[in-house]
Amino acid sequence: MQKYTSAFLFFFFSIICSQQYNIQSYNTDNGLPQNSIKDIIKDKYGFIWLTTENGIVRYDGMKFVVYKNLPLNNQRFTFFYGYPEKDSIFTTGDSGKTLLINKRSPKVTKTSKRNVDFITRDNVNYFLYSSNYIYTTSPGISLYFPCQEGIYFIRENSIKYINNLSKAEENLNIKAKYKNIARIFVIDKSVFFIDYQSKKIQKIERGKIVSSYHEPLLTDPKSKVYWSRVNNQVFIFNRNSIYLCNYEDNRFKISKLVELDDISENIISVYYDKTYRRLYLGSSTYGLQIVSFTDFTTVQRPPSKPESVFYATLPYGSSSVINTYGEVYNRDGLVQDKHFKSIIPFFLAYDQEDNIIARKASDLLLYQKKKAYTRTVSKRNTILIDFFFDTKRYYAFEALEKMDGTIGYSGVLMIYNDLSFKTVKKRVFFNDEPTKFLKFDKDYLLAGTTKGLYKVSLKTNKIINLNPNTELSIRNIIQSKDGNFWITTSGKGFYLLKNNRLIKMPYDVDNNISSSHTILEDQNAFFWIPTNNGLYKVPESQLLQYVQDKKTRVNYYRFSKVSGFKTNEFNGGSNVCGNKLGNGEFVLPSLDGLVFFNPTEIKSYYPESIHIERAVIDNKEQYFDKVLNLKPESNRIDIFIDVPYYSNPDNLIIEAKLSGIPNANWEPIEKDGKFSISNLAYGNHSFVVRTLISDKGEYLYKKINIIIPPYFYQRVWFKMLLSSIILFLLYFLVKWRIHFLEKKNHELEEIISSRTKSLSDTVEKLEITKIKLHKEIEQQKKLIGTITHDITTPVKFIALTAKEALNKNEYSGQQNEKILNSIYKSSDQLYNFTITLKEYADIYTHHQSDKTELYSLYKLIEEKKILFNAIAENNNTVIINNVDKTLWVWISKNILSAIVHNLLDNSVKFTKDGFITIESYVEGNIIILQIRDTGIGMDEKKIEYYTKLQGNIENEKLLLQKYGMGLHLVLQLLQMIEGKIVLKKNKLKGTSFKLILTNKKND
Fold first, then answer.
1. Which of 264, 215, 221 has its CA nearest to residue 242?
2. Does domain 611-707 have CATH number 3.40.1230.10?
3. What sections of the sequence does the record tag as coiled-coil (predicted)?
4. What are 311-366's pLDDT values in tens digits?
5. 298-307 per-position pLDDT tens digit
6. b/e 653-672 (16+ beta carbons within 10 angstroms → b)
7. Cβ contacts of residue 665 below 8 Å, gap of 6+?
8. How far is it, in rounded angstroms, from Cα 957 to Cα 976?
């Protein structure tokens, strides 16, 4: 179900005798099940019901609900009868069955004496005469209708009345039908007969004619009379006009409803809704047409004039306006034309003598009242944007072409000495194009431009920017009756100026209020705001309340084309965007015509009731009353909110809130009236719906309960049973756990005893480790001290040599070579020293976290061999790796690698044209790794020094400068892995280094 729009046939929109209307058409393309509308009625809840030949239809102003799967042999229905005020509306169904509309829903019921629509008397079948809609073309049919005291029986040429109490009969020998149309109709309790021969309307009481009336419209043979007793309405169709006929104070009152361009010959049912001023026309072939009336009147320019685009207008008399072309309009259209030569439609004003000021290009024209506005006085080179005067002087807001070469205008506020445009008293300049200005008080003016709003001091010319942090294109400045100043803008909404601060008003739902042109205030303190998309009405009190509390909701009531406009777009951009006339009417310029209306006569339509009785649960429709019972497995729930409302749907505000949902807030309901719920938890939930019912912001509330029973496992008894079982299991679990812990405790005591012994052993090991660490620290301190001492000499020597070189101006080549050679040797010694020192630091750092691993000694030696092969080959030396390939060791790889690296480095450095042989031997856990070279050999003093140092490395002074740091580092590293080195000079040539290592895993 959805909002249906005008779509088919009968779409007219015209002005006839100042009465405007809009027609919406519905057929099978947009909501109806069938195109023949037999009868129309409104129930006590406000819903419109239609009978068709394919079901019965309920209409709420936005959507149709079709009932065509009723338990009947066919779904063809004809006329309504019964008592809507008693919530008992009937229509004919199958033979012996009747359809009853009660509580907004149709129900099939058996025909009783109270709702019979067919009786037989004297072998003649009489059909209930509740309306003449269905019988207008039925020849030879006999009719009956009951009254308070008796029954009328209508035959072709007679009317018989039978009294209920006395059973007395009265016969009227008159022709009861005219062209197969019954001449009888009833208004309230009065029965009338149309006598075409005498041109009279005869009133009948208890079967006798008691009076007659002369009503030409009723007796005109060209008139069609449509009558419905259940609606108590009589309509007269004559030519293109439709009239409503009432009988009051013993006389007929016939009023014209509308004159249409064309009335279909197929109209068979009529209903007029007085509340919403809507006329419903049912066709036998074209569906339903709804004629909506409006109090707005749109006046267009005559066909001989250009398009009906209006901008600036001024009140002219008490009921008309004049535009910049000199055309005078009232509700009936163009009434006078003064043929102004002005061609600028954006400016018009009166001066103090009611002369009209207009513009032609950049010239000012003054149309004089005393000359009937036919003669003009001009003022050159004045682009007047806005103008007003007080008792002393003129105030003008003018545009100036920018002098800096840029495109656009700047502004100047001109204050003249007197009530003329002759002598200027004061000028105030603005950088941007002017739009509107207004006097704030005796000392200040408010001035608007395309960039902002300013407050101008009349004494000092000081300009105060009232919107310094944002850019606003000011459209209008209005002062309401209570003294408040309201500012409308182009695209940024409208504002209240309070304490030199602009307070923005909230937007409407569609943000149309963002482009507000002006504000007209009526005598009830309602603001009427024309925009680029509709006319809005709002009470000023709501806006002021919003200023105090931003949580306050502001409800804008929208009028659109269906209200009687030619277009939704009203025009701004001129100095006058709307007028108040002396007769109380407002006039607004639009893109297609001038809109006249009296604001006090325009009614705001709001709904009167809310009905929540339908839901679709998992794609199955269900009806309920106040309580919606759901199954726990229900997944998708669509609740439908039915609100009969027959005006602009933009003004229908429906909101809903469901309890049991975190942070439940009022949610807007769309036009389909559906509220969807998914996976609602079990329990008793409250579903509350509200709808706006007045301009004061009052709401009508409706509440239902939604009950979802829990699954068995969600019920209290199940939870208690489950809790008992869990407690029982917990009891046995605790008992078992206690027994387990006692057993475990005994086992832990044995483990603690064992661990205590292990801990004692560990403490002993830690003591040993502590001693070793102490030795290492002492050795490091000693090493650092020695380094500090020994590094001083080469550094000092380099410094002295460099100083000597600087002090002498000239040197011989031999002296230069000597000095440079000295610096080179000292620097090279220092470099090698620091490199070795860095290696030592790296090895020591890594040793702290070194994890013992098993690796191949052969591969380690092979890696070092590859590293030094290039240097060895350069010295014509061969490195031979004779280490056992199957030998795997646990010795710290980092430390052993550094030891071998230093020893190989020495051998390669001092061996030329020789061999370096590396061999291994295993003696139990002892591994002997021997490196022999055929180099120049180590000096005996060095061998003696290193041998002695190895035995007393903690106490012996390290001669780093004399012997370098390489073998000192080797000795340190060997101490870390509990190894020894034997240095021996070979008998023939070179030196042997025998490493004695312990192969064990370091835990």
1. 264
2. no
3. none
4. 999 999 999 999 999 999 999 999 999 999 878 999 999 999 999 999 988 889 99
5. 999 998 888 8
6. bbbbbbebeeeeeeeebeee
7. 657
8. 19
